[in-house]
């Protein structure tokens, strides 16, 4: 039987540790603060950002939710970032992605003070990560490592195959795995004979953004499967491709008109040694790690 790596349990444990740190900081008169910038009205982003703000409230962090309209200019957002960089009550600045296409996202992310870059997207933090001197590490990749370590799944010497090469997940998670002494292969859309490589994986990280992309034929039984994808299925045809005959999901689909699937075909989970479910896996760790990064930023900024 495949072991389920329960994201909710790991996230709860990390949040408890962060809450304890927040308590210690409060005794010294420090309250970590997060500014969350949510541009426009993208439904998924609204849900994510509200969860992040809610987590701050739960753990005793200060938060400020800023919601510029969808037609805001890059110049106005740059001015906002300057203002947040200068505010002493703000330790972390999070600009929810994706931004509208007219915004120069790279320029904006580079304008954030690296000391307040709790997403770890600034080139200074990306460079520190690469150099093995990490300060603020991107939240989802950090969450993946937490899941593996807290599950006592060995990383050193294992072949970790990362499918996807995004700046947000694929590249940083590959570097983190390398620092843990895994043998790392990064695959992407131009990789030749992908299944021949994914079959070699002791640990497979799927971060592609394509529903059920990794099929059972692409893995070796007993592998650890980490599914970073969150894809919404809203047609009957899509639903039937993965979940035909699944009574529980059928009820959810009837109620909400959609269900979520990761980048790994759920049938592959049955062959695995251990796997992160979707939902209920890696996604929950992302928020916990953001809280952890915000506390870390507050400590680093305060010289604590
Ligand atoms: N959009 C999807 N994932 C993320 C994330 O980790 N941080 C931000 N800022 N935006 C995202």
General description of the model:
This protein is of the alpha/beta class. It folds into 2 domains: 29-115, Leucine Dehydrogenase, chain A, domain 1 (Rossmann fold, 3-Layer(aba) Sandwich); 139-285, 3-Layer(aba) Sandwich (Rossmann fold), CATH 3.40.50. The protein is 45% helix and 14% strand. It has helices at residues 7-27, 43-59, 74-86, 105-111, 123-130, 139-150, 170-179, 194-198, 236-243, 247-256, 266-269, 282-302, and strands at 3-4, 33-37, 62-66, 92-95, 159-163, 183-187, 203-206, 224-227, 231-233, 259-261, 274-275. The strands form 3 sheets. The protein has a 6-stranded parallel sheet with strand order 1-11-8-7-5-6. Strands 3-2-4 form a 3-stranded parallel sheet, sandwiched between helices. Helix 2 crosses helix 12, helix 3 packs parallel to helix 4 (105-111) and helix 6 (139-150) crosses helix 12 (282-302). The mean pLDDT is 97. The site of guanine has 9 residues, from strand 4 and helix 6.
Short key terms for the protein model shown above:
single chain, alpha/beta, Rossmann fold, six-stranded parallel beta sheet, binds guanine
Radius of gyration: 20 Å
Given as residue ranges, the uncertain stretches (5+ residues, pLDDT < 50) are none
Q: Share of helix among residues?
A: 40-55%
Bound molecules: guanine
């Amino acid at each position: 039987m495949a072991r389920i790596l329960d994201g909710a349990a790991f996230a709860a444990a990390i949040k408890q540790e962060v809450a304890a740190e927040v308590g210690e900081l409060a005794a010294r008169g420090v309250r970590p603060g997060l500014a969350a910038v949510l541009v426009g009205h993208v439904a998924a982003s609204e849900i994510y950002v509200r969860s992040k703000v809610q987590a701050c409230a739960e753990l005793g962090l200060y938060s400020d939710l800023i919601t510029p309209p969808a037609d805001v200019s890059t110049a106005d957002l740059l001015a906002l970032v300057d203002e947040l960089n200068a505010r002493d009550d703000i330790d972390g600045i999070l600009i929810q992605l994706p931004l509208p296409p007219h915004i120069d996202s790279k320029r904006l992310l580079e304008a954030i003070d690296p000391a307040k870059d709790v997403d770890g997207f600034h080139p200074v933090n990306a460079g520190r990560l690469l150099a093995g001197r990490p300060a603020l590490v991107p939240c989802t990749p950090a969450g993946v490592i937490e899941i593996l370590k807290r599950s006592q799944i060995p990383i050193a010497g294992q072949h970790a195959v990362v499918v996807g090469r995004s700046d947000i997940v694929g590249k940083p998670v590959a570097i983190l795995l390398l620092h843990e002494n895994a043998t790392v292969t990064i695959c992407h859309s131009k990789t030749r004979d992908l299944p021949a490589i994914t079959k070699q994986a002791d640990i497979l990280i799927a971060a592609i953004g394509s529903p059920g992309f990794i099929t059972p034929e692409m893995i070796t039984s007993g592998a650890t499967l980490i599914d970073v994808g969150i894809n919404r299925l809203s047609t009957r045809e899509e639903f039937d491709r993965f979940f035909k005959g699944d009574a529980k999901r059928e009820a959810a689909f009837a109620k909400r008109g959609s269900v979520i699937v990761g980048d790994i075909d759920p049938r592959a989970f049955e062959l695995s040694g251990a796997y992160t479910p979707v939902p209920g896996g890696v996604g929950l760790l992302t928020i916990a790690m953001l809280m952890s990064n915000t506390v870390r930023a507050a400590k680093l900024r305060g010289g604590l």
